[in-house]
Structure formats: structure tokens, C-alpha cells
Specification:
This protein is an alpha/beta fold and 189 residues long. The chain has a single domain, classed as Rossmann fold. The chain is 57% helix and 13% strand. It is built from eight helices and five strands, in the order H-H-E-H-E-H-H-E-H-E-H-E-H. Helix 3 links the parallel strand 1 and strand 2. The mean pLDDT is 95.
Length: 189
């Protein structure tokens, strides 16, 4: 790719981020998740985060920072033994839901991340969480009418079909919530 074409590509690429990630319409959604995280913190409950692939990595990043920096207990289900144990016994499409059943307490909340919003294991987990009376926070992209989005109490949706852009924006929004819980973006520890 020629330098002039690269500049044009990058200008357009980052314009998409500016348009989608930094729209003030997301502020109330961030505030709702912040309020939920503070409620979870004050009641000594926990956030449970899950996703597949890169979304699992974003989930782990969120769980670590909520716990360490935000002082909100959080966990993720990325341990291979746990995944294969529940997948073997209940099917891959049910393993996240089974993990929620095993680890959830009344008052906990579930954060599910899926670019498509249609991954069966994540959608089924949202159904389990709703049946248990748990709040569901969803980070999705692609189609506006995706199944996970429809099950969410708090809905973070990126209007894009570009996986890396959706995942990048999910990460930005999730860490913005964490820093909003903390009340600052620069801190030591």
C-alpha cells in the first residue's frame, strides 16, 4: 500500500472510531453501567464477564481492572479446564450459562461481549442470567436486532460489521466505565 493510500485508509479508519466510539449518545449508557457497577460494589456482589475469542480477552481485561483498579469484584470464565468441563457435559452452546449457574449469587451482574451478538453460548448465558434475575450488560455490534442485544438491561451496540473496530470500541467503552467508577483516568497501583 502506497504511503498516500495508507494515509487515506487510516484517516477513514480513525474517522469511523471518532464517529462510533465517541458519540455523546453513549454517555448515558456508560453512566448506567457505572451505576450498576457501584451497586454491585456496595452490596459486595460481583460482575461476571464472558465472551469468545477476542471478546474473552476484553472480558478478562475488564474483570482484572474492575477488581484491581475499580475495587468492584469481577471474574471471567476463561480457564480452559472450566470451559472444557462444562462444554463436555452440557455442550459448547451452554457452557457459559452453566458457569453462571455455578458462580452467581443474587445481586450479581453478567457482562457478555459478542461482536455478532448471536454466539449461541453467549446468548444462552444471557437467557440463564435473566431467568436467575441477574442484570445483563451486553456489548455487541453488527446487526441492530441481534439476540444478545434484545436480552440486555444495559446495551452497548456498535453500528459496524468490522470485527476489529467493534472489539476496539468495546474495549474503549468498557475501560471508560471502569475509569468512571474510579473517578479518574490516571492513577497509581
Amino acid at each position: 500500500m502506497k504511503v498516500c493510500h495508507l494515509k487515506e485508509f487510516l484517516d477513514n479508519y480513525f474517522d469511523v472510531y471518532k464517529k462510533l466510539a465517541f458519540d455523546p449518545a453513549i454517555y448515558p449508557v456508560i453512566d448506567r453501567f457505572r451505576a450498576l457497577a457501584l451497586r454491585v460494589q456496595q452490596s459486595n456482589n460481583k460482575l461476571m464477564l464472558a465472551g469468545n475469542g477476542a471478546s474473552a480477552t476484553i472480558s478478562a481485561h475488564g474483570a482484572f481492572d474492575f477488581t484491581k483498579q475499580g475495587k468492584v469484584r469481577a471474574t471471567t470464565f476463561n480457564e480452559p479446564g472450566l470451559i472444557t468441563c462444562f462444554s463436555n457435559d452440557y455442550g459448547y452452546e451452554n457452557w457459559v450459562g452453566e458457569a453462571i449457574k455455578s458462580y452467581a449469587d443474587a445481586g450479581d451482574a453478567v457482562v457478555l461481549i459478542s461482536v455478532s451478538g448471536s454466539s449461541p453460548n453467549v446468548v444462552n448465558a444471557a437467557k440463564v442470567a435473566k431467568q436467575m434475575g441477574l442484570d445483563v450488560v451486553a456489548f455487541t455490534g453488527r446487526h441492530a436486532d441481534n439476540p444478545l442485544r434484545k436480552l440486555a438491561d444495559i446495551d452497548f451496540w456498535v453500528d459496524s460489521h468490522a470485527y476489529n473496530i467493534v472489539e476496539g470500541i468495546h474495549s474503549i467503552w468498557l475501560t471508560a466505565v471502569i475509569d468512571a467508577v474510579i473517578g479518574k483516568s490516571v492513577y497509581e497501583t
